[in-house]
Amino acid sequence: MIDSLLNPWIRDLVPYSSARNEFSGSAEILLDANESWDGGNDGVNRYPDPQAFQLRKKMEEVMGLPFSMTAIGNGSDEIIDMLIRMFCAPRKDSVMIERPTYGTYSVFAHTSDVRVIDVPLSTSLDLDVEAMIEAIKTEKPKIVFICTPNNPTGKVYPLESIKRIADANSGITAVDEAYLDFADGFASSLALIEENPRVVVLRTFSKAYGLAGARLGILVSCPEIQKIFMKAKPPYNVSLLAQEAGIMALEDMEKVRKRIEETKKRRDEFSSYLSSLGFVRHLFPSQANFILIRVDDAKALYDYLVSRGIVVRNRSSEPMLDNTIRITIGSEEEMRVLKEALDAWNRA
Predict the structure, then answer these.
(1) Residues 188 and 78 placed together within one structural domain of the fold
(2) Is 148:180 a contact under the CB 8 Å cutoff?
(3) CDD domains of this UniProt entry (predicted)?
(4) Furthest-apart CA pair in the chain: how many Å?
(5) Tens of pLDDT along 151-205?
């Protein structure tokens, strides 16, 4: 089933193989990869494990993700790029996205000369399931990307809606759950993989785990897709330091859980505060680590905050999001400074 969806040059690809993949057992003297002999005691003079074995075993232990169903990318962006390269032929195939959503799906599609089909969200900023299913029937995209909670709206889509779209889609349905750790009471699409091997789920260490600078993305899929991803990805795509940072984060899940709860509490409190400001025309309920608001003049507010040394994101160029600002939930001190600035703007 998956094999028929692959680009033939990916299907027939002979993966890069290092000498360390070609023998069993262990060795103390490694003279096979032209590395530097002098690198201190931290091992960074050696190439990283291309399979990220220890990190994936720790993920299986802590996160409950089966080892055979996971791969690590240099951020979720690399995984998005690789999925498009694996399944989409340039100048022939297409991907489908809801709009507005995370812009990288379109960027990587365009860099691979793959057409992008935009399906607008409903007026309530939910997935327009019927419109997406109809577009799937007529356009036959190789990949449908769904971001939930969605960036930049912060809205979570019901699992049943995602399932209906995935069932209607004969290609890959990629569900990006980068922000799901911050959502209350919403089910993951991981459960769909067992019954539909064309579903893949993207997770990340960048948000709840606090490791955006390490660039650690997670691909969860059926083993067949994992095997293809492993042979198609760059051989040493995730650094040793990044892999160790991921393991360290998983060894302190109490800290991760505390960070999630503090972020959610701060988000909800800040949402209440924003609702009291006269210039805020609409607050979009969020299940992520950010809040989207509609204001009188987004550009003026953005420029004012920059003048105060505060950078937020003006999302007004997105369809359906005129005069909107997206605010990431920061530290307690950062939010205090932001409140002072917004209070001054509100009084002006």
Answers:
(1) yes
(2) yes
(3) AAT_like (cd00609)
(4) 71
(5) 999 999 999 999 999 999 999 999 999 999 999 989 999 999 999 999 999 999 9
Which one, of 246, 209, 230, 214, lies nearest residue 60 by Cα? Answer: 246
Instruction: Give 39-44's long-range contacts (Cβ < 8 A, gap of 24+).
Output: 43/240, 44/240, 44/241
d(CA 86, CA 58): 27
How far is the C-alpha of 332 from the C-alpha of 228, rounded, in Å?
Answer: 44
β-strand partners of 326 = 292, 313
Co-location of 161 and 193 in the same domain: yes
User: Vertex 98, ends 96 and 104: CA angle to 5°?
Assistant: 75
Start-to-end CA span in the chain (Å): 61
Cβ neighbours of residue 100 under 8 Å, at least 6 residues apart? 121, 150, 152, 153, 315, 318, 319, 320, 321
Reported pTM: 0.96
Domain match, 230 and 341 both: no
Domain count, the chain: 2
Cβ(319)–Cβ(330) below 8 Å = no
Residue with tokens 């033939």: 8
| CA distances (Å), origin 255, targets 23, 207, 208, 251 | 39, 13, 10, 9
Q: Which of 251, 285, 317 is the last residue of a domain?
A: 251
341: domain range? 254-347
How far, in whole angstroms, is CA 45 from its chain's centroid?
30
Residues 223 and 120 in one domain: yes
